[in-house]
Amino acid sequence: MQRRQHSWRDSTVARIATLPRKPPMIVRESGLTAHAQIEDWLADAIAVGHLTPGDRLPTEHDLAAWLGVSRMTLRQALGELAQRGLVTRTVGRGGGTFVAEPKLEQDLTTLAGFSEQLRRHGKVAGARVLAAARIPASSSAAAALKLSEGDPVHDVRRIRFADGRPIVIEHSQFPAGLFPGLLDCRLDGSLYDLLADNYGQRPHRARESLEPVIAGVREAEALDIAEGAPLMLVERTAYSLAGQPLEYARDLFRGDRTRVVVWTSELGGEL
């Protein structure tokens, strides 16, 4: 019986050749849950490349037995990893738990449009326009764009794609007086390139704020995710080199497919 157990464990680990032969030690102490430790261990294995995109994990039964935990504990860990976008879980014939593609990094240190961000990752950007209209500026848009409430703005709502997969819902507003005829242009490419090429105005810097939210029915349908899935709301006001506000935007990024990166430096002077 002991020999069969040893052979079975070896074959389980052999399905993922780069994992260690021995399971991680689960610390049984108050405040340290087993599922959180397993989640951290698997997340680390993905981060360092021991598990790569497309790798299929052993079955829940096999992996739970190898780790020495219950299937319920393992499911909690895998569920958290799925929420974080590190694994995908499918059911049915050929289903299982698979290591997900790496998240797209949204670097807020330098101002670049979504299309430029994707080019840096070797991805193909796409867009589908949901709505485009000239509307009166709301109080928040007017404040951001330094307009009077009710002044006309071009309101553009789009879904952005990376290699054909929906990633973000963009909602941008531009001063209509600054960009006449904008809505007559093609709006399925880079809007920042459009502003530069047609109007000689390119956003140079931006103030951006981040807030975690959850997907409602419409957001879930547009992004092909479950209702209640995590999203990152990025609110942005973009300015020209001269400091004139050019865009006010509220974008919703899929939390399972993107992550935000910000570089910081030491604050100059003494506090």
Anisotropy-based shape: elongated
Query: Whole-number radius of gyration?
Result: 24 Å
Q: What integer is the average pLDDT?
A: 84
The first-level CATH class name of the largest domain: Alpha Beta
CATH superfamily of the largest domain: Chorismate lyase-like
Widest beta sheet: strand line-up: 4-5-6-9-8-7
Largest sheet: 6 strands, antiparallel
State the CATH topology of the largest domain: Chorismate lyase
- How much helicity do the residues have? 25-40%
Number of domains: 2
Strand content: 25-35%
Number of helices: 8
Could you give a quick summary of the protein structure above?
The chain has 271 residues and is an alpha+beta fold. The chain contains 8 helices and 10 strands.
Q: What key attributes describe this structure?
A:
single chain; 271 residues; alpha+beta; Arc Repressor Mutant, subunit A; Chorismate lyase; 2 domains; six-stranded antiparallel sheet; two-stranded antiparallel sheet; 8 helices; 30% strand; disordered N terminus
Report on this model:
With 271 residues, the protein is an alpha+beta fold. It folds into two domains: 98 residues, Winged helix-like DNA-binding domain superfamily/Winged helix DNA-binding domain (Arc Repressor Mutant, subunit A, Orthogonal Bundle); 158 residues, Chorismate lyase (3-Layer(aba) Sandwich), CATH 3.40.1410. The protein is 29% helix and 30% strand. Strands 4-5-6-9-8-7 form a six-stranded antiparallel sheet. It has a two-stranded antiparallel sheet with strand order 1-2. A two-stranded parallel ribbon has the order 3-10. A hairpin with a 2-residue loop joins strand 5 and strand 6. The longest helix is centred in the N-terminal third of the chain and has 14 residues. The N terminus is likely disordered.
